[in-house]
Prior knowledge:
By secondary structure, this protein is α+β, with helices and mostly antiparallel strands. It folds into two domains: 21-250, 4-Layer Sandwich (Glutamine Phosphoribosylpyrophosphate, subunit 1, domain 1); 274-461, Rossmann fold (3-Layer(aba) Sandwich), CATH 3.40.50. Helix 11 crosses helix 13. The relative contact order is 0.13. Residues 196, 255-257, 401, 403, 405, 457-460 line the site of iron/sulfur cluster (SF4).
Amino acid sequence: MAYASPPANExxxxxxxxxxxxxxxxxxxxxxxxxxxxxxxxxxRGQEAAGIVTFEDGRFFSHRGPGNIADNFGDExxxxxxxxxxxxxxxxxxxxxxxxxxxxxxxxxxxxxxGFAIAHNGNLTNALTIRxxxxxxxxxxxxxxxxxxxxHLIATSRAESLVERMVAALGQVEGAxxxxxxxxxxxxxxxxxxxxRPLVLGRLENSHVLASETCALDIIGASxxxxxxxxxxxxxxxxxxxxxxxxxxxxxxxxxxxxxxxARPDSTIEGRNVYESRKRIGIELARETHIPADIVVPxxxxxxPAALGYAEQSGIPYELGIIRNHYVGRTFIxxxxxxxxxxxxxxxxxxxxxxxxxxxxxxxxxxxxxxTSTKIVEMVRAxxxxxxxxxxxxxxxANSCFYGVDTPDRSELFAAQNTVxxxxxxxxxxxxxFLSIDGLYRAMGETGRDPDSPGYxxxxxxxxxxxxxxxxxxxxxxxxxSFMTRLA
Length: 488
Ligand code: SF4
């Protein structure tokens, strides 16, 4: 993870972006190939860089590069070069629009006790503050990632074992982390005490697997064992699996946006299938925002499960009124307003015969900048819709994320700058409605949001950040913006 404070989303994308996926395996002869497959299943969590580190007979093997998994690991000789039956891998999405080679994970360091590789999903909210202290103490940083702070804290710890040093290091950081790490022949998984980002344990024959999502277990035929608990550290070596809970317990605050948009619909997180959750969100959305209409149309692909739920609950027929072109690469999504609009047209096309003369309920998962919604609505109107009613399967995204998801600065968030009425007018719909925060919690099986114990991180909707934003408040206090901008 790169420093994400303040959040960037400089690519101009109109969806928040998950920033990383991690995968690890212990005890399999085809470790590197299985890691590549696992990362392929997690490709939606980061497409800008990928890396794998393996270990055999006292030696580490590494391959890291920009691009997706196929770009980096499509060549069999690369996989063959990654020797050993233990390893970790990482998919990265860069917040800066460019991917510096030295930021590509897994990061690796030679410690006094041996080699150490680490792959991180999440974002540390006090990494800059710690980094400044470490630099003042003489530490030389190789990358601009928050993850490297962990390596230096581990390296400089006076504790005896690697595990104790890791615990001491993690005890100093704030924010979100799901980690897969490798120390010689030990595979280590850790989840932050709030459990903000996902991490699961799986089993393939006699080997153990760590992955961001269960879809990465499915692709290699591994069975799901359980989710790593918030604040849990898991150690896997030739003696089997050991577990520890070394951190002070904190309220569980898993990222609710994983269920809304980020995670793959075929994944199951903490006992909840993502697809089913999205459908239930659509059902709640229909209950709260029903309007007479002729068809329910999803904005594909992310709006599909919620639209199915909306149609089921409302009794309004579900139709594929917008078709998505799956062969559009990111090449087309350049960070200029004009090309961004062209990108929408390249990606989606209205199914004119389905839409003509219909009252359309258009369902999408979220609105970030509003640019995509405006073009989609324009397209649906041009196809002859009699009226367009937009329904959003989440509350208004009015706050930036600091825990590992790339969202624009608040000044660019559509819902932070406009009322619902203003948003409806700007995107050109006859009506616009969002799911309420209580409706979201009802869809997650609760009776509503308990403000004293929400159970999820929902800060991008509520502004209730579960972990303090030390770097951000430090920036406001001492004006270190230029330093941070340089780092980003
Ligand atoms: Fe998820 Fe939003 Fe919390 Fe970020 S702020 S972790 S996107 S719920």
